[in-house]
Write a structure and sequence with these properties.
It is a single chain. The chain is of the alpha+beta class. About 20% of the residues lie in helices and about 10% in strands. The chain has a four-stranded mixed β-sheet with strand order 8-7-6-9. The protein has a three-stranded antiparallel β-sheet with strand order 2-1-3, with helices on one face. The chain has a two-stranded antiparallel ribbon with strand order 4-5. Strand 4 and strand 5 form a beta hairpin. The radius of gyration is 16 Å and the shape is globular. The N and C termini lie close together (about 5 Å).
């Protein structure tokens, strides 16, 4: 998931009867699922590489004058890492079609408007979810459900070595479509089998953010 620093969900009442183009102008995109991963598993080049990837996609889709940050947490030895929720601003966040995803951080992490229809990519197109071939509903987050980083005493790699591994390790992923048995969290559904591209595909992903 990628979210705009000034923040990446909507008051439906504001959009009723509003043509798509007008809605997009009134509410510029601040939230999207990447249309493509970086192709090297969970090795994103760290947070900086992930942010650059999100920025490149957003700008290619027409976003201007915005600072983009991937929704990712990190882990650090002996202390808590960087939390995804602390990187993305305060909201509100709208998708590429002008639909509100969340008005603030509380709504984003408690009751966001994130489902298959609304969790679109930077071009406003639907991202493959459960039932699609292939299923690509896993999105990398390395994050707990409330958007915070894991504590040091919570053992195990949850961030694929802080987004630098395409082999050993694991990463927490969410389901952008909110489907998958009991794993319905958009940001903390389960952990990946590994950090390679093939391992990410193995649980229903493609290295998307």
């Amino acid at each position: 998931m990628n979210v705009l620093k000034t923040m990446a969900v909507a008051s439906v009442a504001l959009l009723i009867g509003m043509p798509g183009a007008m809605a997009q102008q009134a509410h510029p995109m601040g939230f999207f699922v990447t249309s493509t991963g970086m192709g090297n598993g969970a090795n994103l080049g760290g947070l900086a590489g992930a942010d650059a990837h999100c920025t490149k996609l957003a700008e290619a889709a027409g976003s201007k004058g915005r600072s983009w940050h991937a929704y990712l947490s990190t882990q650090e030895k002996g202390k808590r890492g960087i939390s995804a929720r602390s990187r993305i601003g305060q909201g509100p966040w709208y998708n590429a079609n002008g639909e509100l995803i969340a008005s603030d951080l509380d709504q984003l992490h408690i009751s966001p408007n994130i489902v298959l229809r609304t969790a679109v990519d930077e071009n406003g197109k639907q991202v493959k979810g459960r039932g699609s071939k292939p299923n690509e509903h896993d999105i990398l987050t390395g994050t707990q459900a409330d958007g915070t980083a894991y504590f040091p005493w919570q053992k195990g790699d949850k961030t694929c070595s802080n987004w630098t591994s395409s082999g050993e390790g694991s990463a927490t992923v969410g389901h952008h479509d909110r489907h998958g048995g009991g794993n319905t969290s958009w940001n903390a559904a389960h952990n990946s089998r590994g950090c390679s591209q093939e391992n990410l595909k193995g649980t229903g992903g493609a290295g998307l953010l």
